[in-house]
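Tutorial, part two.
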Amino acid sequence: MTDNFKQMKRLMDFSDENRFYYLQILARSKDGNSKATKVVKNYYITNEEYLDEREEQIKDLCRFFSARAYLRLNRRSYEKVAYENLKQIANSLSYRQYEFVRKSYSKACGRTNDEPNRIWILDFDEKDYNSIDELQVELANCKMYVRTLQTEIQKDYKIIGEVNTPGGVHLLTNPFNKKEFSDKYNSVDIHTDNPTVLFAPDFD
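Running the prediction step on this input gives:
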């Protein structure tokens, strides 16, 4: 089981009521579900109390559907999502794809980002390494190099932390020079606006 609720709450910023965190519960075929990825439920989190009140519900849904809860740490803006939602609806109507209208808001959430202090994810998958020790060495080396690259940027960028996932580790960090990093560590995926794992039950 992967439970990152406590860790994520320490990283979340609820100081702006016009921004929210986008959380999705996804049932994926690779976790034993028979169909392609299915959205079980979406949450739009504006304050910690809202998340606290729904924590057990989120975990129960993940267990029931053999699903994972994914959290985007880059906040969304209600205003930007609303305008993007209108655009998505207009596009669906223009192509007479009426069945997609109901999905327009979640699609708008996925496509907008209003986080002043951007968080990127470096994805370390355990299966890509011969041992946990090898993964940890690679992780440590990448962290040192990211810090080196961040010092070249005239901003207060830093490494934020590590998050355990069912398959490895997500390194959370502020931006850096992607090209220079990839030239040296081309096997490490960089995600500039992807979600990280908030909760995942044990899968049979």
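The beta strands are 2-3, 19-27, 38-45, 68-77, 120-125, 159-165, 168-173, 189-191, 196-200. In part three we will examine how such features are distributed along the chain.
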